[in-house]
Amino acid sequence: MNNSIATLYNRMGFKLPYSVWKKTGESSTLEAIVNKSEMKPPAMENMRGTPIHTFQENDEQKVQFTYADDYHVFLVFTENRVVGEDELAVLFDFFYKGYAQFIDVTGRVKLAKIVDSIRYTTASLNLEDVFCNILTHTLEVITNADYGTLWLYDETKKKIVCKASQGYRYEEIRHMEFELGEGPVGHAFEVGTPVLITNPSDLKFGEVKHISKENKQRWGRRVEDITNIRSVIAYPIVVEDRIECVMYLGQMHSEHVLTDRDLWLLQIFTTQVGIAIRNAKQFANIRELNDALVQRDVIHARLTDLSVRNMGTEKMVEELSQMAGQSLVFIDLLMNEMIPAMAILPTGLSFSHLLQIIQKESQAKSIELNTKEGDVVYPIRSGSVVLGCLIAKSPQTLTRLGEVALEQGSAVLALERVQKQNVLAFYYKNQQQLFDELLYTNDPELLNEKAEALGIRNSEGFVVAMLQVTGCSDPQELEAHIFRLIAELRSAAGALVQTVFGWQNKVILLAGVTGTVELGFFERQLDEMLVYRADGRNDYVLHGGIGSLISSYSDIERSYREAEIALTNPLAGKVNHKLVRYTDIGISRLFTSRNTEEVSKFLSDVFQPLREIDRSGGMLEQTLLVYFEKNRSAGEAAETLHIHINTLYQRLKKIEEVLGLSLKNADDVLQLQLACYLCQRA
């Protein structure tokens, strides 16, 4: 990495000496990445929420890059120069690779801790011991938390009671009893969703503020009040589709507040915790299930070991097939891929059809398909986003061990696919940056270099197309839609697609086509995708625009701008859910979404006076529209309107008087004709 840093530093025009440092985790010391000049480590600035912060210290200039509370990079140099925003952005993205590696390593360490915690919690026959073990190992995984408590709903008392505590005196809080909806614990129990509080002042006004006077007194004077905290997570743990308990984690003394990343870890962890609680109940009630539950631990350890060692999804599916006693198929519904690669979809199903079935059964852990083979689908989700599924044969052929293997495998595969999704998102971001650089490059040599980096090959012709997803407010769902669109594009027109990537709510692709025949085929593929998604089965809307055919790299920027104009043109007939071709929109290309307001004002200036004076249901406006539709032929217009030609002339004269225009003046005629055109197209 040192050589990469030096190369980038020199290209950006910096001079020696300089040094690069990083701070990771809870360590209070800085680690030198590059420090050939033996410079002293910088002082860390407390700039929470600021990704890039520059400051001066002694005779040195310093830049602090903050990627998370537990990962910072510092650049120190003595040169007296101003670092521009673009340079800072390049440096920020450059050092991001180190952060990604740090997250990967720490994530795997925490995953290993989760494996250990599940092994311990399922080993006990005593439910109270299970609860204590859960908290102990939760605090090892969520290191920002100072203490934890576990709460269950007591059916006899109709209250939520504390069953275990770590980090606080259990005797001082075991007498607390919450109503449903009371405090963070009661709120999480009632609504079934996690509560994350990072600002204590929110407690005064939020839904979770109310805590009874009795509970505050029972909390004890010798410990902090339940509302006197820096951050809190109340996480409901679901067992067999019902909330079994709520885990309450608090942070008061540690440096870093609890974050969304902790929620994400708990999402994976509590799934296994729920399984552990259920296991303990089964052990308590039915001793003969002990052997099966021990096998559960073995299966989870084997699968997680494959994940930690990064053996890949294919090896994991192979291992699961052996455990289940039958050949399983994994279907990735983001990339439209199958593992094993030679597998085939169930009879009569496509990737999109299978996705719709799983989305319809949003809470189902398994879905029996109406196929001749009696296939069963085991969905793999991250929150509400469908990542894929495992497909097995009829459930009657599965042993108890096979059912456990599928249950455990689904959870581990979900983590595996989320990691791949994050890597893919980062790859598309890099592709977008390269493509932007290509658009703004005039140097032929550099243009060829960028094209090669994007995988663009020589072709007789090129064309840029752009698809846009609207109506999807969930960022995770939006990202999933974008990935699926790209997968379908590669499947439908893969031989023509030279580069494709997702950026925000758009898919941008460059196709290499040989003449109008291939261009027509490519456009039909895009049209079919748009029409398919216009049938009301989707919770979002898809629009598409395509530029004109070009012949060289240097014209890619022009085709891109044309696709953008076609996509954003409000008069291009989007209501028909067809691909908008730049070459077809004619004069409408002048009226993009950037000047829609001006178009509306222009139309209002022409037609509003007619509407105000016309008391007969739009007679004058209709007359004007038909008159220009018939190319100013008075006879044809009168016939279409079913009026005498003299009546037509009277109406036209009235229109001239109201608007202060003359149909004998060329400029006035052009203005009225354009207004009629825009009105009909809009």
TrEMBL record:
Gene3D superfamilies: 3.30.450.40, PucR C-terminal helix-turn-helix domain (1.10.10.2840). Residues 127-287 form the GAF domain. InterPro entries: CdaR-like_regulators, CdaR_GGDEF, GAF, GAF-like_dom_sf, PucR_C-HTH_dom, PucR_C-HTH_sf. It comes from the Bacteria. It holds the Pfam family HTH_30. Belongs to the CdaR family. PANTHER family: CARBOHYDRATE DIACID REGULATOR (PTHR33744), DNA-BINDING TRANSCRIPTIONAL ACTIVATOR ADER (PTHR33744:SF1). This is GAF domain-containing protein. It comes from Planococcus faecalis.
